[in-house]
Amino acid sequence: MTEAHCSRTRRRLLLGGAVAAGAWAIAPRGALIGLARAQTREHRLIAQPGEAPLLGPSGPKVPIWGYNGRVPGPELRVRQGERLRVTVENRLNEETTVHWHGVRVPNAMDGVPHLTQKPIAPGERFTYEFEAPDAGTYWYHPHQRSYEQVDRGLYGALIVEEPAPIRVDRDVTWILDDWRLTREGRVSETFGNMRDVAHNGRIGNTITINGVFFDEFALHGGERIRLRLINAANARIFGLEFADHRPIVIALDGQPVTPHAPPNGRVVLGPAMRCDLILDAVGRPGHRYVVRDMFYKTMAYELLSFTYSNKPLRAKPPESPIELPRNRLREPDVARAQTHRIHFQGGMIGDLTGATLNGRPLDMRQMMQSGKAWAVNGVVASGHTPEPMLTLTRDRSYVLALHNDTAWHHPMHLHGHSFRVIRRNGRPTPYREWQDTVLLSPDENVEVAFVADNPGDWMFHCHILEHQEGGMMNVIRVT
Q1: How many CA atoms lie within 13 A of 269 on its CB side?
Q2: What is the spatial distance between Cα 1 and Cα 182, in angstroms, rounded to a whole number?
């Protein structure tokens, strides 16, 4: 990789095909009602090697793994209530699976190797089929050796459209990712090393949006955009600030939330998290406005710039309603819910001295010699099939009291369910947002509540994928 490319990667990134990333003119309100259950949407995904312009159109293409040979894989769109049938063919030289992140699928369709399905061997196929119960922004990725397969580019967006979408001029998806590239412009082979496992995961040196390195995103004054953000990075947390613009959050992890400005104007997304924004183009014609990632104080950079055309679309953005209809999630009965405490431990600069791995007590030195550094309630996970840490009764309400007793952030993801985030450090959350991945800061306590209404064995793990590989994972059984 040239010095010029190295310099550029310290700055901003792309828009991945601006208008191409989303369609102009959503269907009129009510036009989709009654159609959702009439169809099954069929797709074919091939997990295979490919190349991608991660360094921009003028840079060399980088070898990647991608669905249908590209990164991101095809954006799959389905209407709420429709069925999705996806045949996945494996042309890699190792096993793989596909997990439908955030979608409340039947357990057999969850894509967790050996826990919910046999992995897809090289040269074999597997067909996933399920109904899309909730409108929103979701994504798909492997769960077999995910710390490498996802980082090489195996992921894509799954958009479930509302029967009556809100009115916007453009519906745009940005899949944010970072890549650890060598000077030769190749993906670094340092997957799963203990420094990444025991610290904050595999942070890359090159940022892309929709698999491309670009500088600018074109806006027309007066237009309204629905911007769907997906964090597909292994470990990087994004904290986006939109200069002179006021984005409004309308959904988190696919689930509608009371529209509100993000705290301090910063949109924070941990790995695997999603956020839908309404972005009104209020800038001046011909001007440029920088979007910065400010999450890490010592690694702040310009992601890209909004560049305004000289000819506005209209005088000002529309004032039509932006609140999304709620999905049919069952409300947990918090007053009667059973509470389970879950303690996350380990990592460097932590107090964990030892834990249990495969039934054997190990000290921290022995854990790290085994490639592990993290524990959940004193147990280190190995593989995807540990003995469940919790067995929950179907259709009952539960509260999980989560304590991050480490020096690092952890985006904790529960498969097969969404939960309400009800308290942080003992204080009620202002929006009681529904999520499937909740970001815990160091030494933070978070309480989430949900109805255990989807039977099966479900992964609960840190979505910093090196932390998951390093032991921060377990299983919750619903019977």
Answers
A1: 28
A2: 7
Give the pLDDT band (50/70/90) at residue 458.
Answer: very high
Domain count, the chain: 2
Statement to judge: residues 381 and 310 lie in one domain: no
Locate the DSSP E strands across 368-452: 374-376, 379-380, 390-392, 397-404, 410-414, 419-424, 427-428, 434-435, 437-440, 445-451
Residues 153 and 274 in one domain: yes
Distance between CA 214 and CA 8 in Å, rounded?
A: 10
The DSSP annotation for 303-357 comes to EEEEEE-SS-SSSS------PPPPP-PPPP-GGGPEEEEEEEEESTT----EEEE
Angle subtended at Cα 299 by Cα 293 and Cα 305, rounded to the nearest 5 degrees: 35
pLDDT tens string 77-110: 999 999 999 999 999 999 999 999 999 999 999 9
One-letter amino acid of 242 = F
In this structure, the answer to whether residues 258 and 377 fall within a common structural domain is no
Cβ atoms of residues 177 and 232 within 8 Å? yes
- Angstrom distance (rounded) from CA 130 to CA 463: 23
Judge whether residue 245 has pLDDT over 50: yes
- Tokens linked to 409: 């952030």
Integer Rg of the chain from CA: 21
* Secondary element (H or E) of residue 146: helix 146-149
Q: Are strands 437-440 and 410-414 parallel, antiparallel or unpaired?
A: antiparallel
Residue 170 has which token pair? 């453009």
Query: Is the pLDDT reported for residue 368 higher than 70?
Result: yes
Q: Residue 21 carries which DSSP code? A: H
User: Considering the domain boundaries, does residue 328 fall inside one?
Assistant: no
Q: Does any domain span residue 21?
A: yes
Cα dihedral sign, 258-262-264-269: positive
Is residue 294 located within the same domain as residue 349?
no
Structural domain that includes position 460? 334-478
**How much is the pLDDT for 214?**
79
Question: Does residue 33 register a pLDDT over 90?
Answer: no
**pLDDT beyond 50 at 330:** yes
| In contact, 162 and 189? CB cutoff 8 Å | no
**pLDDT tens digits for range 184-218:** 999 999 999 999 999 999 999 999 999 998 789 99
Spatial separation of the C-alpha atoms in residues 41 and 38, rounded to whole Å: 10
Q: Tell me how far the alpha carbon of residue 163 is from its chain's centroid.
A: 24
